[in-house]
Design goal:
Elements: H1 4-10, H2 16-30, H3 34-55, H4 64-74, H5 80-89, H6 100-117, H7 126-139, H8 148-159, H9 172-175, H10 178-181, H11 187-198, H12 211-222, H13 225-237, H14 241-247, H15 259-267, H16 274-286, H17 292-305, H18 314-321, H19 325-335
Length: about 350
Amino acid sequence: MKIAFESWIREKDHSLNVMKLFEESFTCYRNSAYRASLLFSHLAFLTIIKELIIKSDAPPELKTGRWTKLIQDLNDDDRWEKEVFEQLINSKAPIFNISENIRQQIKYWKDRRNDCAHFKDNEIEAHHTEAFWSFLKSNLQKITIEGGMQSLLNKFYRHYDPHYTPPNTDPTSLIKEIDEAVRIDELDEFWKTLFVKIGHDFAFEDMYETTVTKIVKLVFQNCNDQTVRSLVNHLKTNGHDLAIINVYPETFSQFEYSASEIREIWTKRAWRLKTLVFKIVAVLFSHGAIPFSEIKEANQLLISKATDCRPQDDWTHTHLAANGFGNEFFEIALNQNRLYDRDKWVP
């Protein structure tokens, strides 16, 4: 029997003790011992949090004495489970930067754990264990000392610091954590902070891949719809969307442009840098985004305004030519006696 959560948890970097507990849980689940399965999974969850606290530095606002006492309690076999739970639900002087909603869910699952341990009247079936696994998948990455978003940002900073990580190391594993680690209401701030910190090379003028354009493409390929939509909105709001479709024309459909947005791109926005305007218009042509009735106008605008520039690559040439750019150029050149410009144009 394949268990989706089993594949997910194996991809994470958890200790041997944690994985042994999950293995027991999976064995019990496959044998329909659902109370035992939930018990082992809950114990694995608490063990993850215990290990997280022990290996973390004390939050700066926390008194040294409280942190020292906490670490002592976590190393006490008789006290550590109770201490971990109390720290998780503590909202008055918390060490975990998590939402109240997550705290309430933690309380709920502690009650279900007690149903299992004390064999109370509440039935525990397969769906209870599966629901707890879903809770872990949705929230485990958010439960950190500094908060899920900040914790993931720190991982990205370390990943792109050559003192810790070799250049060109694949960041896909971090990209896949975004869905789980960052709350929906934090996503826009996450993109802003991440791109400012590591994206000093992010600009519309870039003709080639950069650190940030690679991250954007990986998000489109690996994250859920909510995360992708948040990134799309962030890019469009901040005027960075054209940088992406310039480098990756195949991502154009992700932006779901309206007809008026399309027209604004080729009449105004793309002209921020003339040397790239041909590529952007070619992207629009390649996706059939410019209405047939406006193609002639778009070509005429290119010819009249970009007289000191030319298309930069074969891909751009191909899509301009397929949409009548060459024919329009020669017609204008002949009718307006502008053949002297011919050396600047290679339709």
